Amino acid sequence: MACNMYRIILASASPRRREIMNQIGIRFEVIPSVGDEVITKTEPDKVVCELSAQKAAEILEKAEGAVVVLGADTIVAHNGRILGKPVDAEDAKRMIASYAGDTHEVFTGVTVLVRDADGTVKKSSFAVRTGVRVRAMSDAEIDWYVATKEPLDKAGAYGIQGKFAPFIDGIDGDYYNVVGFPIAAVISETRALGVD
What we know:
Strand content: 25-35%
Structural class: alpha/beta
Helix content: 25-40%
Number of helices: 6
Distance between the termini: 6 Å
Oligomer: single chain
Largest sheet: 7 strands, mixed
């Protein structure tokens, strides 16, 4: 079915996800989820799928009619340890120091919920992984970056699309996944659910 038969709702307040959706010209609404996040899994790919599903389900329950709801959650993992958003500047410095000079992984989980006009609901939940290589950084460089305040609201304490760019040696996988929304996979999964 054509996309214009559905309301498309992004269940996220992330300005980066909004920018990616705008970049490809899709008309959508933003209705951020506000419920408590409950984590019962430990593997990074399963954690992000679980959280994205909770966000999408919350918004589907509030929406009416034919709708596509996109829930997403992004985490950073290094040596098996999940790095969420830093609690403060010192926490951000610790996180960055832990993976500087090494490779870490970014996982974004996306849940696509499609409710047709007849009330039928279809679901796809998936995770995308990207490896990110960060060059070795001096304490002064880490201090400078944290002082920009950019890392304080980001998983893993950095944004690849911002002031952290000079410290990225390379990536293995989808750049947009590191930004927080693997748009190619999102479109592919949405089409697989019958929405073109």
